[in-house]
């Protein structure tokens, strides 16, 4: 029989860390951050110390006390022993949202990671473009190591490529069996609010487990989620671990609803349309790309989303209708010295030269290496373009890009907020800040959002169709709403958090 320990995702939304053991084989299902627990202690400017290895996380109960899973450099730095072999044989990643993946950073590099190709790309974007700490997802950068200097005199800190160690990453394909010890496993693609989400079906000699990850039935590809339900039912699982984020919700807003609502709003509007949607939500990108196309506008993406879109463009995903880089515009912000447009000056030999007359080669140092490929495309634009021809564009502007409005100075615009409603104190504070920016520039706000999670009736119908013997509801604040499944002969077991 399998043994299942829940180290996260219990009585909360996210933070999934589920350890499954059968005989001599142990696997993790996800290894994510609990935002609710982390936000008790940390904020944007109060962060855990990398100088203390994993100790800050362990002290505050953010990481579980499990021997044999954490990276050697963090352990040995704190005077802790590192086991020779990992305590688990692998980790199955359902998708690349941080509440399922963030704490992979702390794991040792010889724990195999299993994920879809799309999840791999998203984690690569996070590694390549993020300026935050604790982002060693696909590569582990060794810390606290000294290496001999080339001249043989003393030591220097290990850094750069010499400090990088590739993690053991395995890209899984839909419904192709793979083996990890006692487990035969299939990845089952599901629809969610970012590319590459996967459920998993795991079989041993004694048990079959269906793990949903996060899923929905009202996105752009509901058929792939329905296929998972059929395949899970066919596998006759005795155990199901299901998300229940929106178990208390009765209805859905679809991507098509947003598309139609946005088109109606802006079809006759002549000013700048500004929209914020989650950067990794490619279905929402497609929605506003279609809105732009149907209203005679061009969707404008920031450098980070353009970088991600470019990675996906180099792969053939016939079931997805992502735009190409040439189909959108790329926004080049003022960074560093701000030598974009013609409003800034720089001094050469005592003479102040307008930025419009400065050779582009001098601008590159303001941008990171990964950004530079997008700076001089034919479809790269800046604040001047949005200022002079606002009726031509839909400008994606996230929370941290609101300062771009100071350069753009929109005289007539609207703001579409296509993200979830605030549900905690920090989000409420950020929401008020957004409102202050919009009020300053006289931008009316329109809310339109579709969730990445199934509604309550859909979740219950899914579980009834799969018909497991035992159900563990996770990723939910309303586990009691699963209890009605016991009338269908399903034993609903509330998971307990293991410390």
From TrEMBL:
Pfam families: Lactamase_B_2, RMMBL
Residues in Zn-dependent metallo-hydrolase RNA specificity domain copies: 445-495
SUPFAM superfamilies given in the database record: Metallo-hydrolase/oxidoreductase
All copies of domain Metallo-beta-lactamase, residue ranges: 83-218
Recorded superkingdom: Archaea
InterPro entries: Metallo-B-lactamas (IPR001279), RibonucZ/Hydroxyglut_hydro (IPR036866), RMMBL (IPR011108), RNase_J_2 (IPR042173)
GO MF annotation: an example: RNA binding
Keywords tagged on the record: Exonuclease, Hydrolase, Nuclease, RNA-binding
Keyword Cell membrane: no
Name the UniProt record assigns to this protein: RNA-metabolising metallo-beta-lactamase
Origin species: Methanobacterium paludis (strain DSM 25820 / JCM 18151 / SWAN1)
High-level lineage: Archaea, Methanobacteriati, Methanobacteriota, Methanomada group, Methanobacteria
